[in-house]
């Protein structure tokens, strides 16, 4: 039996909204709406959003339209993240880009944003077991540098939760993931052992901004050489240090099913004087999140979730 899924809720104007599942919208009506200002090249359902490629003044743009009020809230957060990042990081002098906002608004009271279209090669095209592309292997150093840049940014006021203590928010979110995992899975794989690592080590974590969904399939190698990062819905200024690179490692290990590459990334971090105990706390939290993610699939397979958990515990 599935656990409590409060992990996927957000408070907006004293209302608790869900942002996990999207709803079906009429694509033809949405197309008619955006045709008023743009040439609509392509429009498709992306699950939680309607996504599209628009054109104006011979320039391609990217559309992201939320399909529920809860998804609207996190999409607004992405707009704010894009705005602040680009204000702080000039494309003229940086190898690290996020989309530049062009417009935002409401369609039937649902939030949409339109950005420039970052064209290039995703480091990984989609989640799942694959042969690791050379593009990802060649850009590991840049991925680490991008995560370090994010931690140095003077980002502020991205989410309503920002008024909470950042360590408390991190722990409470992790507990919400834990409670969402089916009880029999928690017991079978002894997931509770991960909580001890977090409780013992989280007091040493410092406050740092985070992107929040820092994965190989959200990173794009642009033709001009820069690395682009999309989908900043879960960006926060009150995150904990090492969160993004820890998230990346967990995704490589458990989702791409490549422990060797995950171990290689960790070894690079340690050679760069990263604190192992702090990283271990992040990895333990992400291990719990990974069990929850797997439990939500139609046919869960916990093999790599469990392997990752065992690896983290041994560190």
Write a short abstract of this structure.
It is built from eleven helices and 13 strands. By secondary structure, it is α+β, with helices and mostly antiparallel strands.
Protein traits:
315 residues; alpha+beta; Phosphorylase Kinase, domain 1; five-stranded antiparallel beta sheet; 13 strands
Structure description:
- β3 (39-45) and β4 form a beta hairpin.
- The chain has helices at 27-34, 69-88, 134-138, 140-152, 166-180, 183-188, 192-201, 243-255, 259-271, 276-295, 303-314, and strands at residues 9-12, 15-18, 39-45, 49-56, 59-66, 96-97, 101-107, 110-116, 121-122, 207-210, 219-221, 227-229, 236-240.
- It is globular, with a radius of gyration of 19 Å.
- It has 2 domains: 6-116, Phosphorylase Kinase, domain 1, CATH 3.30.200.20; 121-314, Aminoglycoside phosphotransferase (APH), C-terminal lobe (Aminoglycoside 3'-phosphotransferase, Chain: A, domain 2, Alpha-Beta Complex).
- It is of the alpha+beta class.
- The model has no long low-confidence stretch (mean pLDDT 95).
The mean pLDDT is 95
How big a fraction of the residues is strand? 15-25%
The number of helical runs is 11
Poorly predicted runs are none
User: What CATH architecture label of the largest domain applies?
Assistant: Alpha-Beta Complex
Per CATH, the superfamily of the largest domain is: Aminoglycoside phosphotransferase (APH), C-terminal lobe
Protein name: Aminoglycoside phosphotransferase domain-containing protein
């Amino acid at each position: 039996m599935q656990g409590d899924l409060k992990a996927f809720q957000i408070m907006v104007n004293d209302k608790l909204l869900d942002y996990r599942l999207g709803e079906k919208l009429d694509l033809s009506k949405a197309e008619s709406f955006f045709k008023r200002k743009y040439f609509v090249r392509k429009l498709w359902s992306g699950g939680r959003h309607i996504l599209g490629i628009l054109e104006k003044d011979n320039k391609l743009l990217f559309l992201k339209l939320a399909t529920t009020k809860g998804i609207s809230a996190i999409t607004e957060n992405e707009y704010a993240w894009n705005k602040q990042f680009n204000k702080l990081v000039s494309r003229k002098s940086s190898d690290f880009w996020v989309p530049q906002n062009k417009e935002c608004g409401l369609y039937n009271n649902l939030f949409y944003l339109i950005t420039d279209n970052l064209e290039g090669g995703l480091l990984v095209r989609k989640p799942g077991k694959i042969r690791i592309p050379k593009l990802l292997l060649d850009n590991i150093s840049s991925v680490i540098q991008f995560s370090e840049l994010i931690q140095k940014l003077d980002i502020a006021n991205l989410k309503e939760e920002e008024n909470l203590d950042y360590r408390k928010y991190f722990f409470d979110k992790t507990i919400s993931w834990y409670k969402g995992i089916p009880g029999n899975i928690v017991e079978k794989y002894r997931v509770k052992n991960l909580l001890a690592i977090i409780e013992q080590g989280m007091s040493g974590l410092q406050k740092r901004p985070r992107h929040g969904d820092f994965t190989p399939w959200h990173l794009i190698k642009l033709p001009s050489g820069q690395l682009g990062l999309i989908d900043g819905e879960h960006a926060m200024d009150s995150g904990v240090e090492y969160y993004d690179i820890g998230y990346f490692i967990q995704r490589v290990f458990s989702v791409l099913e490549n422990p060797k590459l995950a171990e290689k990334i960790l070894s690079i971090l340690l050679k760069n004087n990263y604190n192992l105990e702090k990283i271990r706390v992040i990895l333990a939290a992400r291990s719990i999140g990974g069990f929850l993610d797997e439990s939500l699939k139609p046919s869960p397979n916990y093999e790599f979730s469990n392997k990752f958990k065992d690896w983290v515990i041994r560190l």
